[in-house]
Amino acid sequence: MVIPPAVRPPRLFDYLKPYEKALRETMEVTRDVAAASKIGRILGERLLIKDIPAVAIQMKKEQRYHGKVRAVIDSVREAGVKLL
């Protein structure tokens, strides 16, 4: 019996837009609060471009509103998207 090799999911980096690849290269660290803030700002701008003025955020009970989560949510709010 031959077991087929495991299928690896595609890398997220392969699906990034050219703008995002350039953003990743300019950032020294991609896993800190400043990086999360930039990502939130980009997300907020894209929501406004697609005419989505408000979004609802649902968090799990164990997830706290601090650190990277707070940076992303605050950046989306600062971009002009209303949070429900």
TrEMBL record:
Q: Name a GO CC annotation attached to this entry.
A: ribosome
Q: Could you tell me which Pfam families the record lists for this protein?
A: Ribosomal_L18p (PF00861)
Which GO biological process entries does UniProt record here?
A: translation
Molecular-function GO terms, alphabetical: 5S rRNA binding; structural constituent of ribosome
Q: Which InterPro entries match?
A: Ribosomal_uL18_bac/plant/anim (IPR005484), Ribosomal_uS11_sf (IPR036967)
Q: Indicate yes or no for the key word 4Fe-4S.
A: no
Q: Report which superkingdom the organism of origin falls in.
A: Eukaryota
Q: Does the keyword Mitochondrion apply?
A: no
| Keywords attached to this entry | Ribonucleoprotein, Ribosomal protein
Family according to the record: Belongs to the universal ribosomal protein uL18 family.
- Which protein, by its recorded name, is this? 50S ribosomal protein L18
